[in-house]
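seq/struct pair 1
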Amino acid sequence: MTTRERLHRIVDELPEEELDAALQAIEGRADDPMIRRLDDAPLDDEEISPEEEAAVQEARDEVAAGAPRVSQDEIKREFGVE
């Protein structure tokens, strides 16, 4: 599926009340200098420290060992974010 097709599908599935906000987000994006700078920024401009790498590996090991996972929705509910 092409990017254009995916966008069409997403827009077609949006509830009516979200269409104006989606249009504003898409149209405003091109004019926002901060968005342009972020779009042009390198994907990763810092090296990962040994401590960060160790934390990532620890999390991967926990997942591999079957540690319980928490969904993003559960975290949002816990912190009252919607």
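seq/struct pair 2
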Amino acid sequence: MIPVIVIVLGIVMLGAAFAAIYFKSLLASIISAGVISLFASVLYLILGSPDVAMTEATIGSGLTTVVFLFALYRVRKGNLDD
């Protein structure tokens, strides 16, 4: 059962990666990259590495996505001199 879950997660991650490349919207690409990282953390947890899964979830999925969203907000707002 676990190999099937790993394969499905891998396919979903590849789909999200291609979606992030082909989306025209930067917001959709950032969200798609966050989804890839979230599924990677689930994959690490299934494969028996909870410490790496926690790190990936907090840094990769959470912090990186928030930083990208903040940067996109600042660029669209035009406040780059602060």
